[in-house]
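4.2 Preliminary Data

To establish feasibility before requesting continued support, the project team ran the inverse folding procedure on a target of 240 residues. The structure was first converted into the token representation described in Section 3, and no sequence information of any kind was made available to the design step. The complete token record follows.
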């Protein structure tokens, strides 16, 4: 698709900008990219690391010539907070599907829950969720998984720099994770529940940091749109 002429006030986005967005719940990462394309009229827009629809938090979006920086951002350390729910599993490892396989959790102690985090700290081998965008034979594996076709994915090395349970309110536990790129927090939830013998799934997730960039310094997509409209208005006034 050929880049059309854009509003003079938005030329910097064509030249290249990095935008830090606090992704809202239920938006896909591509929803954000599409929205920024529509707002700025810049065709070349991409994000540095997918957030699932049920996750919120920092999404780094690059425009124009700065899309070359995407791989640089994707390789940075990530920090997440959120909740795991123990005592059940879901096919998608999160709340995109219904909980099943309920098990009692009365025997769990705070000590056993904290102790289990040690199994998932450092360099570990992790199997990605079958309901993920990883491709096999050119197609995302979630397409097969949704049809009930068995998906076999190989374990991958990832590094968990920090994994702590911040609060316990059974069946919910609040966590904080600092990890390498390629880590699936949904898989961590499933594996953590399995290690405790009761099952578990991710019930909420927020990406709080990528490298040195934090969600606290990100803007909402609504505020970004307001700022762009103000830029256009000011440019129009300066030309009158």
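Position-by-position output of the design step:
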């Amino acid at each position: 698709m050929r880049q059309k002429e854009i509003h003079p006030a938005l030329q910097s986005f064509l030249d290249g900008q990095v935008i830090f967005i606090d992704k809202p719940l239920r938006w896909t990462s591509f929803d954000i990219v599409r929205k920024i394309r529509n707002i700025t009229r810049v065709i070349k827009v991409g994000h540095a690391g997918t957030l699932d629809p049920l996750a919120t938090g920092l999404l780094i979006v690059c425009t124009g010539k700065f899309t070359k920086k995407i791989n640089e951002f994707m390789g940075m350390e990530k920090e997440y907070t959120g909740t795991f729910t123990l005592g059940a599993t879901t096919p998608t490892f999160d709340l995109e599907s219904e909980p099943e396989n309920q098990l009692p959790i009365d025997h769990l102690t705070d000590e056993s829950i904290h102790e289990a985090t040690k199994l998932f700290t450092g360099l570990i081998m992790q199997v990605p969720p079958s309901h993920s965008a990883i491709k096999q034979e050119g197609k995302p594996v979630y397409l097969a998984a949704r049809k009930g076709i068995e998906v076999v994915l190989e374990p991958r090395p990832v590094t968990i720099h920090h994994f702590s349970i911040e609060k316990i309110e059974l069946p919910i536990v609040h966590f904080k994770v600092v990890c390498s790129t390629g880590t699936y927090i949904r898989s961590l939830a499933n594996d953590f529940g399995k290690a405790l013998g009761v099952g578990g799934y991710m019930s909420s997730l927020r990406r709080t940091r990528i490298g040195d960039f934090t969600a606290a310094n990100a803007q909402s997509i609504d505020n970004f749109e307001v700022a762009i409209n103000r830029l256009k208005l000011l440019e129009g006034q300066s030309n009158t």
